[in-house]
C-alpha cells in the first residue's frame, strides 16, 4: 500500500505564493475563494434534473441573451463568495449590466484585484446533460487602492492579466488556471470535496487534427474562414482533420488543449463582431492557451493585445495549436 497522493489545490496555491515577489497572499486568497465557489456550482450542476435548476430563468441579460437558472445561480455564488471574503475591489460578469464596486464593511477597500468572469459558459447545454464551465480573469487595478473602482480597472488588455482560469463541469469537475508560470489542472474528488493536481504543466501540441467551429453558420463566414475549412477537409498530408464542436467554449478548449486542435468563432454576417466576449471569455482563454504553448488571435493579431473599449465587447476568436492558428491566419490575410 502506498500513502503517496497528489498535491491538493490548496497546497499548490500556498507553495506557489512564494513565486510572486512581494506577494501579500491576496491573489492566493482570491484563487482560494474561486475554488470554493467552483465546488458549490459543481455540486449544483450535478443536481441538474433532481432540483429545479434546469431551464430558462425568464429574463434576458444586458446582451439580450436568455438567462438560464444556472447562469443566475452561478453568478450569485461567485459574486457572493468574492464579496463575503472581501478579497477583490471589483467584479464584472457576463450576467451583470455594469461592473460591481466592492467596499468592506466599514466602506473602505484596500484590495488590489478585480475579477471578470463568465459564471456559466455554455449554459444552453445544461438541459441536455452536456459539459458547461466557468471562466475567470484577474487583473491588478490601475486606479489608486482605497478609491472606488472605475471602468478603467476592467478595460485592460489581456496582457495585463495576473491570473486566469476555467472550471469545466464535465464527466469530472476540473479547475485549470495560470498565473503566468505555466498551466495547471486540478480534478475534484467529489467524495471529499478536494481538488487534486491531476494535470501539472499542461501543454498543447503545436499541431493537431481537430477543428471546432459552428459550421451551421458556414454561409455567413468570411472567405478566409471558408477557405481554411476547405483546407482542413482536403485530402492531403495528415488531412482531412476531424470536426468536434460541443458548443460550450470551455469544454471545446479543454479538449483541444489535451488533444491538439483549433477553435474558431469568427465574425459572420449574422454576428459582425463575432459572438464571444473579449474580457471574460477570450482573454482568459488566450492567457491559458499561450501559457500552454498555443496561440490566440482575432484572425490577424494576438487577442491579448486588443485594447478594450467596452465591458461586454465581442471579438472574433481563433485559438489553439500554434501551427493551426497560424495557418488559419494565413487564409485570413489572403
Ligand atoms: P454563454 O453560455 O456564456 O453565453 O456562452 C456560449 C458561447 C460559448 O460557450 C460557445 O462556444 C458559443 O457560445 C456557442 O455559440 P453557437 O451556439 O453560436 O455556436
Ligand atoms: Mn460563455
Ligand atoms: Mn455564460
TrEMBL record:
Catalytic reaction equation(s): beta-D-fructose 1,6-bisphosphate + H2O = beta-D-fructose 6-phosphate + phosphate
Q: Which GO terms describe its cellular component?
A: cytosol
InterPro entries attached to this UniProt entry: FBPase_C_dom, FBPase_class-1, FBPase_N, FBPtase, Fructose_bisphosphatase_AS
Top-rank lineage group of the source organism: Bacteria
Pfam families referenced in this protein's UniProt entry, alphabetically: FBPase, FBPase_C
Q: Where is Mg(2+) 1 bound in this sequence?
A: 94, 118, 120
Q: Which positions are annotated as binding substrate? A: 121-124, 214, 245, 275
Q: Tell me its cofactors.
A: Mg(2+)
Q: What keywords are annotated for this sequence in UniProt?
A: Carbohydrate metabolism, Cytoplasm, Hydrolase, Magnesium, Metal-binding
Keyword Magnesium on this protein?
A: yes
Question: Which protein family is it in?
Answer: Belongs to the FBPase class 1 family.
* Assembly information from the UniProt record: Homotetramer.
What is this protein's record name? Fructose-1,6-bisphosphatase class 1
Q: Which species does the entry assign this protein to? A: Myroides marinus
Q: Taxonomic lineage per UniProt?
A: Bacteria, Pseudomonadati, Bacteroidota, Flavobacteriia, Flavobacteriales
